Amino acid sequence: QVKNKAPAEVQITAEQLLREAKERELELLPPPPQQKITDVEELNDYKLRKRKTFEDNIRKNRTVISNWIKYAQWEESLKEIQRARSIYERALDVDYRNVTLWLKYAEMEMKNRQVNHARNIWDRAITTLPRVNQFWYKYTYMEEMLGNVAGSRQVFERWMEWQPEEQAWHSYINFELRYKEVDRARSIYERYILFRALAALVLVHPDVKNWIKYARFEEKHSYFAHARKVYERAVEFFGEEHMDEHLYVAFAKFEENQKEFERVRVIYKYALDRIPKQDAQNLFKNYTIFEKKFGDRRGIEDIIVSKRRFQYEEEVKANPHNYDAWFDYLRLVESDAEAEAVREVYERAIANVPPIQEKRHWKRYIYLWINYALYEELEAKAKRTRQVYQACLELLPHKKFTFAKMWLLYAQFEIRQKNLPLARRALGTSIGKCPKNKLFKGYIELELQLREFDRCRKLYEKFLEFAPENCTSWIKFAELETILGDIDRARAIYELAIGQPRLDMPEVLWKSYIDFEIEQEEYEKTRNLYRRLLQRTQHVKVWISLAQFELSAGCEERLPRCRQVYEEANKAMRSCEEKEERVMLLESWRGFEEEFGTEATKERIDKLMPEKIKKRRKLQAEDGSDAGWEEYYDYIFPEDTANQPNLKLLAMAKLWKKQQQESEAAAMDPDKDIDESQT
């Protein structure tokens, strides 16, 4: 029994055991004993036993070709070539498709310098298995090593009849070039290109590298005219359906080496105009390098523009409703393109109408139309500009929303074309279809510039029927009548305006009316206006404005009138909850008294000034819970204190508490009192 079942301190794994066994070589088998043959009989006996072993293995499994090859190689090692041939032939009867068997058989014959036997084997091999390229390579190499160039060429010709892969043709071409047979190599290239061209009729994407190799072959041997012709044939063969950037890059580099820079530029531009941009990255790169080396500034700029154009094309293709990308693209095209190309891009851009009829989605889109119209106008084609404006206005859903700027720009364009009736018709249509404040203002401004005041009056009337709460319109209408000298009409307009039940900026309207009466020096009417305004509102600024008006009225009683206004205001503001406004009034009153008042009036206003004190109040959160305390400033007015005795009692209590604290402090520090008395 194991008493201690705890794990050992040093753990040993199975991997460790195997590694140690391998290091110690515990299972090392002793080498077989060496056998020494001393006479012929012993040798014959050894051969018999080995042959019997090989034959037994073959009988057990005839399809294992390695047994046949070992048997034949053993016979070959004994220089029994005839027996080895017999074994190889028997093996070929079993499996004639085995490539290794043919290779071993032919190599045996070549090793033993049996050239004719080797030729026969290679002939049988390429006849039986013509698609095994290794047989052809070995056969042609053997004939070339034997110096039989004609025989090797004949083998190559037989091989080419089977239309092998690309490397076989190049091997044939290299063979001819090794013997300086350039014309033969050219004819092989021609046959190969023709073969590939016929094969390309079946293929979807034919390969261009063979044409490039052919052209470089001609260039290498200084046949430049032939090389150019090969490139031209390749361009014609592939056409525009299967254009490849590698072909045009190679063609351009060839022409660059021949110093034909204009031809290079034409090749690059031709390719860039026709090859899809995503497949022309390498073409762009090489064209840029070429222009930097041999081109001028204009050529380099063309390259950069082409590259940016490609980027914008990709952006608008990915998201056609990315109007910012369209703006950048159009700006680029306008700077460097013909009018027709620019129009085409504009047409593509405006075709991407926002899918949702909400104004926020159309705000960027509408500027495409505006830029298009301005571009056409700058191109001095008024007819096309008018068509652009009209097409845009027909496209807009005016029942849901409209863009006043489009109507106004169209009207301004017609005025620049000296076609005033069309401009008025456009603005009239806009007001009829979709009235807006901006449209009315633009139309009125146009008629004002034309000095058509009767039309302005009619437009203001329509405008105020449409938006009676718009104080600015009332003010502008009254100012127009004032300029025209019709004061009664202006006053009537102001009266109508302040009588409206709903106004967006009533304080501005009242101020304008008051300023109008002051300008006309109608002081009584101005006072009446102030009184009417004070019946509607008791705002402190109205009182201060009335006081300043009385001060500036210029009459003898201006100071008493002004002081009386301040008195009335102070009485009216006592019930006001906003104490800051009352303080503002008193400060304004004090400023008036300091400038125009006497000592008595100054002393009186100083007594009216409030005391500023700091207070605390509880805060409550939205859910009703306590949110702490906050400090704030409050004002206590002497007039309010006199009317409220509780406040006076509170002040006396605070004073008594302060005196008590001082007396307690003195009692706690008697030495200080002694020192003070001695001092």
UniProtKB/TrEMBL annotation:
GO BP terms in the entry: spliceosomal complex assembly
Domain Pre-mRNA-splicing factor Syf1/CRNKL1-like C-terminal HAT-repeats: 66-356, 374-531
Domain of life: Eukaryota
InterPro entries associated with the record: HAT, HAT_Syf1_CNRKL1_C, Syf1-like, TPR-like_helical_dom_sf
Keyword Nucleus included in the entry's annotation: yes
Gene Ontology CC, one term: precatalytic spliceosome
Main localization of the protein described in the UniProt heading: nucleus
Localization of this protein: Nucleus speckle
PANTHER family: CROOKED NECK-LIKE PROTEIN 1, PRE-MRNA SPLICING FACTOR
Function: Involved in pre-mRNA splicing process. As a component of the minor spliceosome, involved in the splicing of U12-type introns in pre-mRNAs.
Family assignment from sequence similarity: Belongs to the crooked-neck family.
Name under which the protein is recorded: Crooked neck-like protein 1
Organism annotation: Phainopepla nitens
